[in-house]
Amino acid sequence: MLNFTVGPVMSDNETLAIGGEQVPYFRTQEFSDIMFENEFLIKEFVNAPVSAKTVFITGSGTASMEAVVMNVFTSSDRLLVIEGGSFGHRFAELCDIHKIPYTSITPGPGHIVTPEMLAPYEGKGYTGLLVNIHETSTGVLYDSKLLGDFCRRNAILYVIDAISSFLADPLDMSEVGADVIITGSQKVLACAPGISIIVLSEKALKRVYDHETKSMYLDLKNALINAERGQTPFTPAVGILRQINVRLRSIKKNGGASSEIARIKLQAEDFRSKIQGLPFEIYSESMSNALTPLHPVNTSAYDVFLELKDNYGIWICPNGGHLKDTLFRVGHFGAITSNDNDTLIAALVDLQNKGKI
Ligand SMILES: *Cc1c(COP(=O)(O)O)cnc(C)c1O
């Protein structure tokens, strides 16, 4: 099976080996040291300010999205939510659930956010902005600098869900002035799903400390207190945190975040050059290196997904909802290579020869 989805993706052998080991007891100095190193390397890879802190939540990316909405904001806030696809919509739903007032900016599937779209919200008293910097559902990469400048000008707390963009696209927390960055274990980190990660700036930390959160499991204050000694309040996904450690160390050894981003960029460019001539249209105004969103001109996108899965042993990533027949996505991260791209392209050419795409 060859996996070109957008998570979980294929792990390298070193990461896989950890999955086969016994899970160690974790209230130990040894495990704390792993957690300190994880925090250190995550902060390094997003260029977080020294004063920033990181928490590791046992739960998929959405758990950290919810933890941030609950712990950083209150009903006295007024947020802007970039709602360009299903992940943006998730932020809006979280605001509804937690009764945080918000206004959605809706660039439409495949479209970027422009300065003109932000202009009506300048100086209007908004206090936070939530964005999935790579809207994974349609494959649009927003401009983190443009949004950061807007937030800085308006003294707005800037929250970036970079779950599918971290280590695929350059992201500099200090330069863009982000207050929160969220990522997860099963995207470019290419580990098992189950851990999500939140980096908080000093400004965001102050909000968390001042806030009384109505949750036991997603109380970031408690998580931060425990993180000071390299621990978590409750039993974390110990095995995945060990996998993350192996991956972060290996990325560091190979040149750090910029080398990993360059590797994924090459993988994306290789694929994008090889699909020229096939009956697909690229769906997005501005792509992440993480994936290519494709619209098949002659057939249902979902049928392409089924054909590849059932007859070639290859997974691409289908879309759901109203985009199910319009769009599929091909991921460029995890343990895949240019040769794997060739295998996928050969399958697509075969489908074309059979008149199926
Ligand atoms: C994958 C992803 C998430 C998290 O989804 P989970 O299924 O909860 O891990 C959130 N936001 C974006 C942009 C994603 O790509």
Folded structure, characterized:
With 357 residues, this protein is of the alpha/beta class. The chain has two domains: 14-253, Type I PLP-dependent aspartate aminotransferase-like (Major domain) (Aspartate Aminotransferase, domain 2); 257-353, Aspartate Aminotransferase, domain 1. Helix content is 41%, strand content 16%. The protein has helices at 13-19, 29-45, 61-72, 86-97, 115-118, 144-153, 173-176, 202-210, 220-227, 238-253, 257-274, 301-312, 338-353, and strands at 2-3, 53-58, 79-82, 102-105, 128-132, 134-135, 140-141, 157-161, 180-184, 195-200, 280-282, 291-296, 314-315, 317-318, 328-331. The strands form four sheets. The protein has a seven-stranded mixed sheet with strand order 2-10-9-8-5-3-4, with helices on both faces. A four-stranded antiparallel sheet has the order 11-12-15-14, with helices on one face. It starts with a strand and ends with a helix. The relative contact order is 0.18. Pyridoxal-5'-phosphate is lined by residues 7, 60-62, 87, 132, 136, 161, 163-164, 184, 187.
